[in-house]
Amino acid sequence: MEINVLIEEGFEGGLEVSWLRSLAEQVLVAQGVSSRAELGLVIAGQERVQQLNRSYLGRDEPTDVLAFSMLPAGGDLPPFVQPPDGVLHLGEVIISYPQALIQAEEHRHSIKREIAILIIHGVLHLLGYEDEKPELKHRMSAREREILSYIEGEKS
What we know:
Elements: E1 2-7, H1 17-30, E2 37-44, H2 46-57, E3 65-69, E4 88-96, H3 97-107, H4 111-126, H5 134-155
Parallel strand pairs: 1-2, 2-4
Antiparallel strand pairs: 3-4
Helix pairs in contact: 1-4, 3-4, 4-5
């Protein structure tokens, strides 16, 4: 698997690229994704994430995680063309480090646990999970809990 990780300047403290890459890989393995897959993972500031949210989703507000999938969608937009290299290009997950800090404090757990939750959420979105309707959100949340439990069990 190829997990390309970018941590914007100023947010490198406490997050190791190898740990972030491992988390994303574990989510893909838990979802049965082939080893011939690639995705991008970006840890960014709130301003960048809000600007992307505004530009691409029309929502001028901060958010915790954005996922831009390259897989064929069921909507009206034409799917991205997949290159003929045999690699499944999934897309990109962008996480707001400042928002993750706020949420970690609110939920009274570590920043690393919050980042793990956001990576799981973002990767599931890349793989087609949706949370716009209550039944879809319930399905996605249940899968997130299962994967988080699996990942946390691996550490023990």
